[in-house]
Amino acid sequence: MAGKRSSRGAAANARAARNAATVSSATGRTSRAAPIVSMVSSTVSSALPTPLSSAYPSTYASEAENDLNEQIENLAIGTLTLDSTSPDQPTRPKRKFPRIPQPPFRFLDLPSELRIKVYEHHFANTGDVLDLAPDNYKRFHQKLSILRVCRTIYIEASYTFYSTHAVRIFPTHPGRFFKTKKPLLARLKPGQRACLSTLQLRLGPGWSKPPPGWVVNSALGLDQCVNVTKLSVYVECDPGNDTFKGFRQPGGFYEAFSKLLLLRILNEMPWVQRVEFDAWPSVKKSGGLMTGLIDLVTSRSLKITWGPDRGWTDAEEVEPPPIPHNYAPIDSLMNNTGNILGLA
C-alpha cells in the first residue's frame, strides 16, 4: 500500500510539472517556482526569522492606529486629567481637609523699640512737612487709619507721626488755604501739638500783602508745643532785591514784618534751642531780610544751623561778581579801578 501511495504522489508531481511547463511556454516565461514552492513548503520551518525588509516601519497608518486617533479626538475635555482613573470612570472628588485657622500675630508683644520702627516704615514716603494742601487726604488718610486699631497703637503711632514731621506754622499753598484764618497748627489737638519736635516758618509768599491770618496769637497753640526744639526758617524770596524794585512796599515793609513775626514766635516758645535757615538760590545771606533775621536769633543766643538747599555755612557768603550786559548803564560797567568791564 505504501508503494502505491508513493507512486501516486510521484505521478501527481509529474503532472504538476507538465502543467507548469505548459503555462510557461504559453506566456513565454520559464517558471520554476511551483515545484520549488512545493518542495520548500514541506521542509521550511515556521521558526525562521522575519526577512530584513519587513523590519522597517510602514509609512501608512494601520487601521488600529486610525481607530486610536479617532478615540483620542473624540475624548471630552473633562476626561483629560492626571488622575489614574480611566476616562470612562468618573473622577473621584478630591478630599477636602479642614482648614486650620492660623493664630493672629501678637503685634503688641513686640518690644516698643521694634514697634516704633514699624511705625516709621509705615509712615515713610509721606513728605517731611505737614501743611494745609488739597492732596492731604490722598497722602495721609490711608496711613492714619492705623490710629483706629486701639488706644496703645494710637498713642505710639501718633507720637511717631507728629514727631518725625515738621508742621508749617502758616499755610503757603495758593488758594483758599493760603488765606485761611485757621492754620493747620491751630487745628491740631493739644496732645498732637505736644508730640511735635519741629516747626517751620516759610517766608516769601505774600511779600507785597501778607494774608490777614498770619498773626501770632493764642489760637495757634504755640504754648502747647513743649517738645519743639528746632525752628526752621525757609525764605523763598527777598523783596529787598533789586528785582522787586517798583513792586514792593517802600521802607523795608516785608523785612520788618518777617522780623516781628519771628520775634513773636520765639517769645511764645522760649524753650527752642536752635534755628535753621534755608532759602532758594536767589536769596542772599547779606540781603536785608536775612540780615535782620540772623541778627534777631543771634541776640537771643540761639544756635544757628543751615539747611541743605541753599548750602550756607558759618563762613561769609562769597558773592559772584555781577555780569554786565549790553543794556546796562555805563556806571555799572566801571570796576573799582575805573576801567570798563568786558561786555557779556
3D structure, described in words:
This protein is α/β, with parallel strands linked by helices and 344 residues long. 33% of the residues lie in helices and 8% in strands. It has helices spanning 2-27, 33-41, 63-73, 112-122, 136-140, 151-163, 184-187, 190-195, 253-268, 288-299; strands at 129-130, 166-168, 198-203, 230-235, 274-279, 303-306. It has a six-stranded parallel beta sheet with strand order 1-2-3-4-5-6, covered by helices on one side. Strand 4, helix 9 (253-268) and strand 5 (274-279) form a beta-alpha-beta unit. Helix 4 (112-122) packs across helix 6 (151-163) and helix 9 (253-268) packs parallel to helix 10. The longest helix is centred in the N-terminal third of the chain and has 26 residues, at 2-27. Residues 1-6, 23-47 and 340-344 have low confidence and may be disordered.
Brief summary of the model shown:
The chain has 344 residues and is of the alpha/beta class. The protein has helices at residues 2-27, 33-41, 63-73, 112-122, 136-140, 151-163, 184-187, 190-195, 253-268, 288-299, and strands spanning 129-130, 166-168, 198-203, 230-235, 274-279, 303-306.
β-strand percent reads 5-15%
Largest sheet: 6 strands, parallel
Overall radius of gyration: 52 Å
Mean pLDDT: 79
Number of strands: 6
Number of distinct helices: 10
Strand order of the largest sheet: 1-2-3-4-5-6
H and E order: HHHHEHHEHHEEHEHE
Poorly predicted runs of 5 or more residues: 1-6, 23-47, 340-344
List strands and helices in order, with pairings.
Layout: H1 2-27, H2 33-41, H3 63-73, H4 112-122, E1 129-130, H5 136-140, H6 151-163, E2 166-168, H7 184-187, H8 190-195, E3 198-203, E4 230-235, H9 253-268, E5 274-279, H10 288-299, E6 303-306
Parallel strand pairs: 1-2, 2-3, 3-4, 4-5, 5-6
Helix pairs in contact: 4-6, 9-10
